[in-house]
Design brief:
Layout (H helix, E strand, L loop, with lengths): L1 E12 L2 E13 L2 E6 L4 H7 L7 E3 L4 E5 L1 E7 L14 H14 L4 H17 L2 E7 L4 H14 L2 E8 L12 H17 L5 E7 L7 H14 L2 E6 L3 H10 L6 H7 L7 E5 L5 H10 L2 E4 L1 H6 L7 H6 L4 E3 L11 H16 L11 H15 L17 E5 L15 H11 L5 E6 L2 E2 L1 H22 L1
Parallel strand pairs: 1-4, 1-5, 6-7, 7-8, 8-9, 9-10, 10-11, 11-12, 12-13
Antiparallel strand pairs: 1-2, 2-3, 5-14, 14-15, 15-16
């Protein structure tokens, strides 16, 4: 058993952000078994017979929060983060993204990049990540191995695409189906407790209806999650609908392909119509909001408040490398900024997102979007302990707090100004993982100095 004592912050819903002072939280075999506010730590420690070395007392400027959840990130694109942002989506894919992803047939190259992205996101507080890999089965399995070894909770998607792609980076339908089924069977046979496969048709432009329908059958057969893109860019929407005769809109393509389920998450959803939102709500399909990417490659600004009012579950995604940052803190900030900009043209009663809303989206909201809210997302008894210890007074960085500030202001400051330096500990299923991830990242960076010209 392990006991934590101090300030605990978590969301019970988007409207219920809890600040629990002097709280004892006990973890046993990775699960939360006890939580009590204003508790007598010594009494609880004695009652549960917990030794002193298994007690973590938070400092005055620290708090405990649930781990953050990235509902949409492209692991192979990590190497491109921060560059190649001069084109909108379709041109960007052809000039920068497809050539980069094609390189992941090389397992040595894949190992270098995938190790870095898993380690980096963990050190930045991402305890769960929903990854797109590439069309390469072996390197997608490698990404799963790396996530397991470093300690991140992850969904791994071997990408499927059989049309409208470069000849150097495309599958025929037969090999696409065989490879994704082989990938699912191989990954599930590893019995990794926190790493799962996901069906991943790239998007409706690069996937035939026949392939998408077959992928939906495999998702049902193996009971796995589905991830893809929807309505990110206006030109993309037009092309997608033109390619699938008899489909009235983008969402209808996926409806006819049987890809819309309660275990499906669609990235972006910037330009969805009211009718499309009704259909998504009917199927209980979720949206991953990726505000950095939507701005950086000029796709548009998604009105998240509108999606939520229509009853959709919405999580946050970094969408590296359309988004230039792999930190969910960045996604939280961008989400607030985009919502504020949208509010300028809305009625006075419109409520833009605030720090409470994005805290929920980064934790419990993300868990709901991925169908994990029975396991993680907040600190309810019985859930697995994915958590961060946040230090509001790090030795370096631009985060400063004042003695007379209330805790809500301090949390808001951390969301707007914090970074990996203010995240002192990261736990996944009760296991502390940040130190291992940081050391892995340091080793990789030192190694890359000797061979950078060879790798990139």
């Amino acid at each position: 058993m392990q006991l934590f004592y101090g300030l605990v912050i978590h969301s019970k819903s988007i409207d219920d952000l809890c600040f629990l002072s002097n709280t004892v939280l006990i973890v046993d075999n990775g699960k939360i078994v006890y939580i009590q506010e204003n508790a007598d730590i010594n009494k609880v420690q004695q009652e549960h017979k917990i030794s002193s070395e298994n007690v973590v007392v938070l400092k005055e400027n620290e708090f405990l929060m649930p781990g953050m959840i990235d509902t949409h990130i492209h692991a192979p694109q990590y190497i491109n983060a921060g560059c190649g942002l001069d084109l909108p989506l379709l041109g960007w894919l052809n000039k920068y993204t497809f050539p980069t992803e094609a390189r992941f047939s090389d397992l040595r190259f894949a190992n270098e990049i995938y190790t870095r992205v898993v380690a980096n996101t963990l050190t930045n507080g991402t305890t769960t990540a929903m990854y797109f890999a590439t069309i390469h089965k072996d390197s997608a399995l490698l990404l799963a191995d790396i996530a397991y070894q470093i300690g991140q909770r992850a969904f791994i998607g071997k990408v499927s695409m059989d049309q409208n792609s470069p000849e150097y980076y495309i599958e025929d339908k037969g090999s696409a189906v065989k490879d994704i089924e082989d990938f699912i069977v191989a990954l599930q046979s590893k019995n990794y407790p926190n790493v799962q496969p996901a069906i991943t048709p790239r998007f409706a432009i690069t996937c035939s209806m026949n392939l998408m329908k077959t992928l939906s059958e495999l998702a049902s057969k193996y009971n796995v999650n589905i991830q893809t893109h929807v309505s990110e860019n206006l030109a993309e929407c037009d092309v997608a609908v033109s390619l699938h005769e008899g489909c009235r809109d983008y969402v209808d393509i996926y409806a006819q392909a049987n890809l819309l389920t309660a275990k499906t998450i669609l990235a972006h959803g910037v330009h969805l119509s009211d009718k499309e939102l009704e259909v998504l709500h009917q199927y209980q399909t979720s949206i991953s909001h990726c505000p950095n990417s939507n701005c950086s490659i000029r796709s548009g600004m998604c009105d998240v408040r509108r999606l939520m009012e229509k009853g959709l579950r919405v999580g946050l995604g970094t969408d590296v490398s359309g988004g230039f940052s792999s930190s969910i803190l960045d996604a939280m900030r961008f989400a607030i900024t985009v919502s504020n900009i949208l509010s300028l043209s809305k009625p006075e009663e419109y409520k833009p997102l605030n720090f409470r809303d994005v805290f929920f989206m980064a934790t419990l909201g993300g868990a709901q979007a991925l169908g994990l809210d029975d396991k993680v997302g907040n600190f309810e008894i019985g859930k697995e302990f994915d958590a961060l210890v946040v230090n509001l007074a790090p030795m370096d960085g631009n985060l400063e707090i004042w003695s007379d500030e209330g805790m809500e202001n301090r949390l808001s400051k951390w969301i707007h100004l914090g970074d990996d330096r203010s995240i002192s500990r990261v736990y996944v299923n009760g296991v502390e993982v940040k130190e291992g991830a940081t050391n892995t990242l340091r080793i990789k960076r030192l190694g890359s100095k000797r061979k950078s010209s060879e790798m990139v």
